[in-house]
Each structure stands twice: as structure tokens, then as C-alpha cells.
Write a structure and sequence with these properties.
Strands 1, 6, 7, 8, 11, 12, 13, 14, 15 and 16 form a ten-stranded antiparallel β-sheet that branches. By secondary structure, the chain is α+β, with helices and mostly antiparallel strands. The longest helix has 46 residues. It contains ten helices and 21 strands. β9 and β10 form a beta hairpin. It is 44% helix and 26% strand. Among the domains are: 148 residues, no CATH class; 58 residues, no CATH class.
Length: 440
């Protein structure tokens, strides 16, 4: 059932808040301007770096054999990433020959969601209605239900235990006759589930600990204590019936595949249950683009001082890798451009928040004003952003920058200096009747 909370903000408070919002508008515009300028510089520098790197990159046909001719060269090579190291999760006694060993922990908890709707009242007040709803979900960390708005859900969350996420990486991963550096190792993504083989006595101990916590929270101590006592006294018989291949099924601990589950039933989760998933990164064929340094690699430094190295899963050519890198650079450039433009528009709207709030005395007038300001701020924000981007490109790439500046100037002329009317006049002249045909 939803819980509703209503709050009223007075006219004076809203005016005061709008003054703060106006000041914040200047901060947003300044920050967005810096973001737009920096992004264009980043895009150009990255593109130049990739061009330098692609021009310098050479194929290493056989990385299984170390060759002096590739010393100091930026190479593209494909080989198996492998390791002899055995990684251990000491808490669970799990050991695997792998490049990495990871455990991910999730908790089944009540989660609060909120949705607010505001309504302006005559006289400048604002009434806000916030609706809170609650659902049970798997989350990455325990949720403090003491902060929930609905008293009926406060204190509803608890956990049988807490376990930390963990990632363990091999220190030495070979790549043919070479050794990968840490950054390249952490780029390997050939993950797969671990077939767990946790000692049954360890699981038995976990089961007793979870049972004690369950009894303390749920108050069903007698039944649970009896179940645990039966598990302990009949360990020999229980081991045979509770384990089935790679599965273990006790009262409060269940192991199946690569998951250990704390709770009464993995098929019917309840608040407090904990789910731990184990994965490993296995040896795999990878393609590396990096600069050779002895028997290992280091990032390539371009002429503009930007560094570059990358690892891709599977076999890739030089052209494929640099095409992907350039596409990624373009994608991030546009994402950051859009974010910057939206921030600029938001900043300009904040500048007019004081006037909009003053008019809230008559909500109808305020709505009309807000609509008009929204359109103007969108146009001005777009033009302003194009100018910033153009100036940045003039600084980094003059030709494209001038083209963008001309586009921004055209928009200003159209929307601010009767450009629409002049364009219409030119269009009408083009539709004028053709001249009379010359006499024969």
C-alpha cells in the first residue's frame, strides 16, 4: 500500500529559493561551458593520438617468440593470455587457477521508491504530494529501512549476515613470450561461473551461524535450535542426503553451481536473504596494442603526450581496433556535447527562476511565462553552446570551427533579427511570374 506525504512551501520561501536557483544558474552555465570546451579539446586530442598510434603500429606476427626488432615499437599482436597462478578466496576456501577470482554479494531487501507531484496555489504557495511505494528487490548492499517515510516499513530490513564483494587478480599473466602489465590484465573479460566445491563442514558452520541469527530476529529459536542440533549430531547421514553432486541443501545454506545462498529457500526469497555469486576469468585469446618494453608492455605516448594501449578479446586487426577506438571517441564526444547543451539550457532557465516564482501568485500567468522562457532559453542555450563549441574548434581545428560559428550566427539572425521575414521575402521573389517571352 502506498504512503502519501503532503508538504506546503510558502511564497516567501519559494522566492528565496528562486534567488539561490538564479545564482546556481550562473554556476551551471560556467560549468557547462567548461565541459563543452574541454570535450572538444579531448575529442581532437584523442583523434590526433589515435592517428599517431595507427601510423606507428606494426603487426607482431609471432608473440610466442621474443624478438629484438620489436623493442620500443607499438605492436598489434594476438596470443593466449595465460597464468600459472592459483587464486584463493580465503573466506570460502575456494582456489582456482585463473586470471581473476571474484565474488558478488546481493541482499534481498525492502526498497523505497518515491514520486512527487507539485501544484501551484493561488497566492504563490506550492503543494507537493509525494507518494512512497515499497518493493522487495535484490540490491548490492543492505538498505537502512530506519529512514523510510512509511512507519509501517521502518525497521523491516535486516540481513542474516554481511559479506564483502571481492576481486582477486593474478600478478603474472603471460602473453606468448611476454608478460602483460596490470592495466592490460584487468581488461580481460573472459569470465565464466566457478563450479564450487566448498568443504561441507564449512557450509555446516555457516548454516549454524545463519540459523542463530534467524532465531534471534524471527524468534523461532526452539525449532531452529532443534534443526541445527539434528544437523550436527547426524552429520554423517546428513552429508549424504544434503549433498548431490555440486549441490548442497541445508536449512539455511544452499549451494548450487556457482551460487551460495543464505536463507530458507533459494526459490522463495525473503527479506534478509543473501546471495553470493562466484566467477573467474579464464585464459583466452586476446589482441594487444601496446608498446614493447623488454618482456612486457607499456602505454604508447603520442606526440601530444596522450597515452594509448588497449586489449581486445579474440583476434583483431590493426584497422579493426582503431576503427572501434575512433567510433568510441565519436560516441563519447556526442554524449558529452548533448549533456553540456542540456546543462546550458538548464542554466539559462534557472536565471529566470526568480521572475517565474514572483508570478506564481497567479499560477496561470506563471505557466505562460514559463512556457515562453522555456522556448527562448532552449534557443539561446543551443546558440550559446554552438558558439562555445565553434570557438573550441577554432582553437583546436580552425576550419570546422568557423563553419560552426557561421551556423550559430545564422540561427541568431533567423530568430533575433527578423531573419524569418527576410527568408520569406526571398522565397516569394523566387515564386514571381517569369519574364515575358521575347518577340519573334
Amino acid at each position: 500500500m502506498a504512503y502519501t506525504e503532503k508538504t506546503t512551501t510558502g511564497y516567501g520561501t519559494r522566492v528565496g529559493n528562486s534567488i539561490k536557483a538564479t545564482l546556481m544558474g550562473f554556476v551551471i552555465i560556467i560549468g557547462a561551458t567548461i565541459l563543452l570546451w574541454w570535450n572538444e579539446g579531448r575529442a581532437v586530442k584523442t583523434a590526433d593520438m589515435l592517428e599517431d598510434a595507427q601510423g606507428a603500429c606494426v603487426e607482431m606476427p609471432n608473440p610466442d617468440k621474443k624478438s629484438a626488432e620489436f623493442e620500443g615499437e607499438l605492436v598489434c599482436a594476438t596470443a593466449m593470455a595465460n597464468t600459472d597462478e592459483v587464486l584463493t578466496d580465503k573466506d570460502f576456501g575456494i582456489s582456482e587457477n585463473a586470471i581473476s577470482l571474484s565474488r558478488k554479494v546481493e541482499y534481498f531487501q525492502w526498497v523505497e521508491h518515491s514520486e512527487s507531484k507539485s501544484e501551484d496555489k493561488l497566492g504563490g504557495k506550492q503543494e507537493t504530494t509525494t507518494t512512497y511505494t515499497y518493493s522487495q528487490e535484490w540490491v548490492s548492499s543492505p538498505v537502512n529501512s530506519g529512514d523510510f517515510k512509511d512507519p509501517a516499513y521502518q525497521g523491516k530490513n535486516y540481513t542474516w549476515t554481511t559479506v564483502e564483494d571481492q576481486d582477486v587478480w593474478a600478478e603474472k599473466v603471460t602473453f606468448g613470450a611476454y608478460v602483460l602489465n596490470e592495466s592490460l590484465i584487468h581488461s580481460i573479460s573472459s569470465t565464466e561461473p566457478i563450479e564450487l566445491d566448498v568443504n561441507f563442514q564449512v557450509l555446516q558452520s555457516m548454516n549454524k551461524s545463519i540459523a542463530d541469527t534467524y532465531a534471534r530476529i524471527k524468534g523461532n529459536a526452539a525449532v531452529i535450535a532443534n534443526n541445527v542440533a539434528n544437523d550436527v549430531t547426524n552429520l554423517a547421514d546428513t552429508t549424504e542426503t544434503a549433498t548431490n553432486g555440486n549441490q548442497v541443501d541445508l536449512d539455511f545454506v544452499h549451494q548450487s553451481g556457482n551460487v551460495i545462498y543464505y536463507g530458507r529457500s533459494a526459490n522463495a526469497p525473503e527479506v534478509g536473504d543473501v546471495r553470493i555469486t562466484f566467477e573467474k576469468t579464464v585464459p583466452a585469446k586476446v589482441t594487444v596494442v601496446s608498446q614493447v618494453e623488454g618482456n612486457t608492455f607499456k602505454p604508447f605516448v603520442a606526440s601530444n603526450k596522450k597515452k594509448f594501449q588497449t586489449l581486445r578479446m579474440g583476434k583483431k586487426s590493426i584497422d579493426e581496433i582503431f576503427e572501434e577506438e575512433n567510433e568510441s571517441n565519436t560516441m563519447w564526444t556526442w554524449i558529452l556535447r548533448i549533456v553540456g547543451i542540456l546543462l546550458v539550457i538548464s542554466g539559462f532557465k534557472s536565471l529566470f527562476s526568480f521572475l517565474e516564482t514572483v508570478l506564481k501568485v497567479v499560477p496561470f500567468l506563471s505557466s505562460i511565462f514559463a512556457f515562453g522562457v522555456g522556448i527562448i532559453c532552449t534557443i539561446v542555450g543551443l546558440v550559446y553552446s554552438l558558439i562555445v563549441i565553434a570557438l573550441a574548434w577554432i582553437f583546436y581545428r580552425p576550419v570546422l570551427g568557423i563553419i560552426l560559428l557561421l551556423i550559430a550566427g545564422f540561427l541568431v539572425w533567423v530568430f533575433a533579427f527578423n531573419g524569418k521575414k527576410k527568408l520569406a521575402e526571398l522565397a516569394n521573389k523566387g515564386k514571381a511570374a517569369p519574364a515575358e517571352a521575347p518577340a519573334e
